[in-house]
């Protein structure tokens, strides 16, 4: 090997190491944000992990490439980061009374708050605040906060919107009881072309994707039960960037302390 060739190889290796170190640092920073969500509300921490896993199943079935799937994963994991707020936490978790108009308005502000929280990342990950801001938009333009229509809504937000709604229907939260998968499928089908992108809805409702979703959810459940980390890289609970850790000690304490009762039937934004 000539001196020039070995210098080029060395420079290439250095650049690759620098890039990997930057990626590791970014992943660690994102993971810290995820732990902040767990620390505020362990239920939301579990919800966003399930939504990320399901969104990746849908993104893969829709033919998205690796970079686009990574965007989807980030938007899914942080779509509710705007709910990190003592005021919103109290509104969502103080069961036993109905939501006032002011409560609903406060909750509906979470996409904007989330985009604000993530705005320093915009120069590096522009799709992240934009996707989080748009996850309550609706295909027919009746969503919020901007009333975007159809393909004006970022693709990642359209994917997350379907999986988020599905997950919110089937899982019991403190303010509502979970319903059956059949009811959830019916609700998603009803929203086709009004709330949800019709193309993505058809993919989501296909038997193959429904099978993969159930499998992904089982795999996430098994990880939670085992208490182990970094178990294996399965195709349906993908591990593009995050290590999918269980909620940290704060999350576990929260889970142990709080009653898991559904005390409210009012429907909230997911
Ligand atoms: Fe939301």
Quick take:
61% of the residues lie in helices and 0% in strands.
What's the tally of helices? 12
Structurally, the number of domains stands at 1
The topology string of helices and strands comes to: HHHHHHHHHHHH
Q: In the CATH hierarchy, what is the architecture at level 2?
A: Orthogonal Bundle
Q: List low-pLDDT spans.
A: 226-270
Structural class: mainly alpha
Main β-sheet description: none
What proportion of the residues is helical, as a percent range?
A: 55-70%
Termini, distance in Å?
60 Å
Overall form: globular
Bound molecules: fe (ii) ion
For the residues shown, what is the average pLDDT? Answer: 80
The CATH superfamily title: Hypothetical protein af1432
Class in CATH? Mainly Alpha
Rg, Å, rounded: 20 Å
The count of DSSP E runs of length 2 or more, i.e. the number of strands, is: 0
What fold name stands as the CATH topology? Hypothetical protein af1432
Characterization of this structure:
The chain is mainly α and 270 residues long. The chain has a single domain, classed as Hypothetical protein af1432, CATH 1.10.3210. It is 61% helix and 0% strand. It has twelve helices and no strands. α2 runs antiparallel to α3 and α6 runs antiparallel to α7. The protein is globular, with a radius of gyration of 20 Å. The N and C termini lie far apart (60 Å). The C terminus is likely disordered. The chain binds fe (ii) ion (FE2). Fe (ii) ion (FE2) binds next to loops.
């Amino acid at each position: 090997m000539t001196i020039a060739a070995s210098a080029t190889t060395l420079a290439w290796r250095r650049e690759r190491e620098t890039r990997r170190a930057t990626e590791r640092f970014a992943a660690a920073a994102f993971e810290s944000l995820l732990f902040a969500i767990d620390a505020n509300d362990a239920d939301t921490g579990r919800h966003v992990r399930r939504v990320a896993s399901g969104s990746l199943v849908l993104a893969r079935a829709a033919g998205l490439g690796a970079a686009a799937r990574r965007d989807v994963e980030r938007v899914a994991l942080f779509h509710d980061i705007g709910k990190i707020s003592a005021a919103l936490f109290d509104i969502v978790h103080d069961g036993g009374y109905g939501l006032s108009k002011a409560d609903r308005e406060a909750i509906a502000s979470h996409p904007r708050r989330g985009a604000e929280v993530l705005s320093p990342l915009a120069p590096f990950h522009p799709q992240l605040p934009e996707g989080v801001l748009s996850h309550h938009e609706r295909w027919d333009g009746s969503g919020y906060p901007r009333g975007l229509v159809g393909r004006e809504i970022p693709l990642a937000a359209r994917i997350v919107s379907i999986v988020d709604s599905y997950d919110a229907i089937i899982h019991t939260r403190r303010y509502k009881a979970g319903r059956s998968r059949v009811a959830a499928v019916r609700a998603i089908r009803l929203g086709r072309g009004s709330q949800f992108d019709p193309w993505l809805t058809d993919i989501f409702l296909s038997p193959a994707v429904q099978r993969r979703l159930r499998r992904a959810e089982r795999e996430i459940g098994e990880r939670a039960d085992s208490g182990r980390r970094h178990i294996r890289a399965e195709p349906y609970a993908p591990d593009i960037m995050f290590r999918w850790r269980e909620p940290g000690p704060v999350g576990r304490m929260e889970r142990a302390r709080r009653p898991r009762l559904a005390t409210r039937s009012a429907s909230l934004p997911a």
